[in-house]
Amino acid sequence: MFAKGIRESLERTRNQVFGRIITFLGQNDLTQETFDELEAMLIQADLGTNLADDLVAGLEVRAEREGIVRADGLRKALRQELRRRLGDPPPLDLSARPAVILLVGVNGSGKTTTAAKLARYLLDQRRSVMFAAGDTFRAAAVEQLQIWGQRLNVPVIAGQPNADPGAVAHDAVMAAKNRDSHVLIVDTAGRLQTKYNLMEELKKVRGVIAKAQPGAPHETLLVLDATTGQNALSQAKAFKDAVHLTGVVLAKLDGSAKGGMAFAIGSELGVPIRYVGTGERVEDFAAFVPDRFIEGLLE
Amino acid sequence: MFQNLSSKLQTTFDNLARRGKLSEADVDLALREVRLALLEADVHFSVVKSFLDRVRARAVGAEVSRALNPAQQVVKIVNEELVATLGEPGRLNLKGPQPRVVMLVGLQGSGKTTMAAKLAKKLRDQGERVMLVAADLQRPAAVLQLQTLGQAVDVPVFATQATPVEVAGQAVAAGEKQGKTVVIVDTAGRLQIDDALMNELIAIRERTKPVEVLLVADAMTGQEAVRIAEGFHKQVGLTGLILTKIDGDARGGAAISMRTVTGVPIKFLGVGEKTDAVETFDPGRLASRILGMGDILGLIEKAEATLDRENAQQAAEKLVSGQFTLEDFLTQLKEVRKMGPIGQLLGMIPGLSGPKMQIDEQAAEQQFKRTEAIIHSMTLRERRSPEVLNGSRKRRIAAGSGTTVYDVNQLVKQFKDMQKMIKQLGNRKGIPGLPRFR
After folding, report:
1. Contacts of B111 in chain A (CB under 8 A)
2. Which ipTM value was assigned to this complex?
3. A44·B45 Cβ contact <8 A
4. Rounded distance, CA B387 to CA B385, Å?
5. Smallest CA–CA separation between B115 and chain A, in Å?
6. Distance between CA B110 and CA B215 in Å, rounded?
7. SS3 letters for B32-70?
8. Would you say B152 and B117 are in contact if contact means Cβ atoms under 8 Å apart?
């Protein structure tokens, strides 16, 4: 399922950018131009100038040391260099009961949809799931999650509009305990990482959850729109500082050139990508497997 | 995070001799930094390339003006070219038979529904009779979201059970009957490569004959911006762009990419979560932001938005008359703190956004908190006349605020110094050391 979903969605990316890289790294001689063009391609895949620079510099050194003289000799080295930056994402920590998963992110990144997809993914593993409708700010956000709850047959704990999101989270943890649910997924309001008060509010929500159940939240996932450019790093850093991210969900990885900033987030912040959203349907969701991700991108 | 481009260029040029004209070598050296700044701001790679070619053509051989140094001269040219590329802010076209249809399109989560409500409010306030149309039948509760927002901005929302094309068509007919002057159609988010959904947009366009088809795009969009804008423009035919979530720290280079590939003007910016947070765009400001030259105007706006004007006025009067007390000081401190962490504010000042300034952020925050705690532990009388503070009072305050007598003494001393300084300032015009804005 994973292989199909992610391959299909990366097909376009591959054709647009990385496919060109593999074709580009052909049997021609390795020259300075090869490296310049390679860097340009990496930048166009949203890897960022720093990382693209870094990667290409590393490849230049390796080419010299390993005596690579033809462009296609760089393929393996490039694959290895990319792989090194993604780390090894651990499986979700679901040992506690309830295991609390907190979803955070900027406005419109896809938190609520990800909550639904994640729930569906866990239900498929025969785990019981509950939702906490922690986005009490945006108009109809609670109803959006409630509709998903009905469709998936997942109970939703919600408060009044404009209720304190901390109070909702607290009630939800208590309810999940009472019903002995396996997993509680806490949706939160979208917030730009530069909004001081909103980030403080998020810290508070996290604190409330930790108080209601020691050790929780067991996972705090940043939902990141895959079309995001260099700002992704700023987002990941700010949310990491505020609420100790345990991973990233790369949402909307179904367009054309996407996902490049995953490498920067992995290598600069050490926050692993854990899941990917690959389409409009609720089942378009998969665990992130670095080898397949790169394989899909380069082949 | 980003260094000021001017200061980077300054370093680059420091090693060069001063000359009357910019040589090719000078320009190439400078443009390497400009290229990085633009790429870091998410301007598309090929767009950067063509942009730099234009700048190079203008800059090589250009006379370095007497008032500027070479670095400033290059920045000036880059900035002018950037402003020209961004183009004039486009106005909403509200010509033709009523009701005029405005259609919002874009990817999922770009902010279409929120923007629809913001535009509705703006136009309603301008005296238009506006109707909102809920044509997003894809996302759960999207219709309800628009209805809730419509209620908040007091604009009726048309919704019915039908296909999006049918909904839009019926809405325009209803709008005409009800004497509406503008109908804003909110559509479902979609990928530009989703043929079925793009065909739906084309059908809505043909059915409703909009005067405006606006692409709503996230300011944080990366290199993908080019393909998004191109895709929507080629298939649906855009008349303008709206950039949302510009109130974050994204540099917004996507704006240049999208403007370059479509040629249509940028019409609005989404600058916050509230329904009145929409602005017409200013090419000069967006250009400085993309170049990472700080955002003084943004800082001023932030201050204006958060600071209580009346409070500030009172404080200023007290300051000048020498009646400024520790109590007023506390109020002012709280006002400043409302604007956010001090480090973030410093980051908005050009030249102060380097890593050096970041280190002291936490110390500054702590100092703020300590000062607040000390003043909170004082009685009203002590706040108004700090000269009554004797040893036993100071010990009590220190214990109450979790600080030491030394901290209390420091604060009182600083406060007195400040009072003295302000009295001196009151005798002069303006504040010395601060440049005047032109």
Report:
1. 107-108
2. 0.90
3. yes
4. 5
5. 12
6. 9
7. HHHHHHHHHCCCCHHHHHHHHHHHHHHHCCCECCCCCCH
8. yes
Look at residues A162, A160, A144 and name the one whose alpha carbon lies nearest to residue A152: A144
Q: Which amino acid is at A84?
A: R
> With contacts defined as CB-CB under 8 Å, which chain A residues touch B340?
194-197
Helix (H) or strand (E) holding A111: helix A111-124
Contact B184/A178 with Cβ under 8 angstroms? no
Six token digits for residue B204: 């809505």
Q: B301-428 architecture in CATH?
A: Orthogonal Bundle (1.10)
Mean pLDDT per 10-residue run, chain B (438 residues)? Answer: 56 62 83 88 93 91 75 82 90 92 97 97 96 95 96 96 96 97 97 94 97 97 94 97 91 93 95 90 85 60 61 65 76 71 56 45 75 89 86 91 89 80 56 36
Q: Cα–Cα distance between B424 and B167 in angstroms, integer?
A: 68
Q: How far is B144 from chain A (nearest CA, A)?
A: 6
**Residue A109: its chain B contacts at CB < 8 A?**
109
Euclidean distance between CA atoms A241 and A259, whole angstroms: 22
Instruction: Select from A16, A46, A280 the Cβ nearest to the Cβ of B222.
Output: A46
Residue B247 DSSP symbol: T
The residue to which tokens 């063509």 are assigned? B50
Q: Which two tokens stand for residue A95?
A: 């040992």
The answer to whether the Cβ–Cβ distance between A252 and B36 falls below 8 Å is no
* Whole-Å CA distances, B415 to B123, B132, B263, B410, B422: 49, 55, 56, 8, 11
> Is the domain B100-293 a CATH 3.40.50.300 member?
yes
Shortest distance, CA A207 to any CA of chain B (angstroms) = 20
Cβ of residue A227 closer than 8 Å to a chain B Cβ: yes
Which residues share a beta bridge with A183? A99, A129
Six-digit token string for A211: 């108080």
Q: What is the pTM of this model?
A: 0.80
Smallest Cβ–Cβ distance between B109 and the set A108, A230, A280 belongs to: A108
User: Where along chain B do the CATH 3.40.50.300 domains lie?
Assistant: 100-293
**Which residue from A minimizes the CA distance to B193?**
A255
A44 touches chain B (CB under 8 A): yes
Beta-carbon separation of A255 and B340 below 8 A: no
Q: Which residue on chain A is closest to B151 by alpha carbon?
A: A139
What topology is assigned to B3-86 in CATH? Four Helix Bundle (Hemerythrin (Met), subunit A) (1.20.120)
Question: Which amino acid, one-letter code, is at B177?
Answer: K
